[in-house]
Amino acid sequence: MGLVVVSMALPIAASATTATAKTLLTAATTKARKERKNVMVIFHASWCGWCKKMDAMLESPQFKTMFEKSYVITHVDVLENEGPNKALENDGGAELMKTLGAMPDSGIPFFAILSPDGVKLGDSLLPGKQNMGFPAEPQEVVAFMALLKKTAPRMTETDRTTVETFLKNQKINATGH
């Protein structure tokens, strides 16, 4: 994987209702430097069922503390449908998602792990550049666990085993991701 440093100088138009992707990333990296953690940037949309599943896992009492020991987690809203939810998008989000390695057809949730200095440490792309999204398939779980081992230094082996067991026991929606 090549070295990617995320520039904070993305050309982003200001939004009256939502924070820009640049603002979100700057706040996350500032907090991460202060807390000596990495940043997990999750790209999602209001209509995305797999995004909601990912968020539910990360926010659940069982896992929230495990992930927050190692990551400052921030969400960037992208790919909203036209209509009222279009205003939920964070300006510059699609560009940031592409900068962090998402392919045009990667889908969401797409996530990337950054160092506190904005250096990309990993992402949700599998070999062949397919996005794992919420890790539900066996190869996705294996890749996700390897990413945690590499980028979540404060997550214990017991924590990772708990996450892995949970993911392996999830029912896969018939529509896939």
In short:
With 177 residues, the chain is α+β, with helices and mostly antiparallel strands. It contains six helices and four strands, in the order H-E-H-H-E-H-E-E-H-H. The protein has a single domain, classed as Glutaredoxin.
CATH topology value: Glutaredoxin
CATH architecture identity? 3-Layer(aba) Sandwich
Number of continuous helical runs: 6
Order of helices and strands: HEHHEHEEHH
The fraction of residues in strands falls at 5-15%
The secondary structure category is: alpha+beta
What would you say this structure looks like, in words?
This protein is of the alpha+beta class. It has helices at 21-35, 49-59, 64-68, 93-99, 138-151, 157-168; strands spanning 38-44, 71-77, 110-114, 120-123. Helix 5 (138-151) runs antiparallel to helix 6. The radius of gyration is 15 Å and the shape is globular. The chain starts with 20 loop residues before the first helix and ends in a 9-residue tail after the last helix.
Summarize the helices and strands and which ones pair or pack:
Blueprint: H1 21-35, E1 38-44, H2 49-59, H3 64-68, E2 71-77, H4 93-99, E3 110-114, E4 120-123, H5 138-151, H6 157-168
Parallel strand pairs: 1-2
Antiparallel strand pairs: 1-3, 3-4
Helix pairs in contact: 5-6
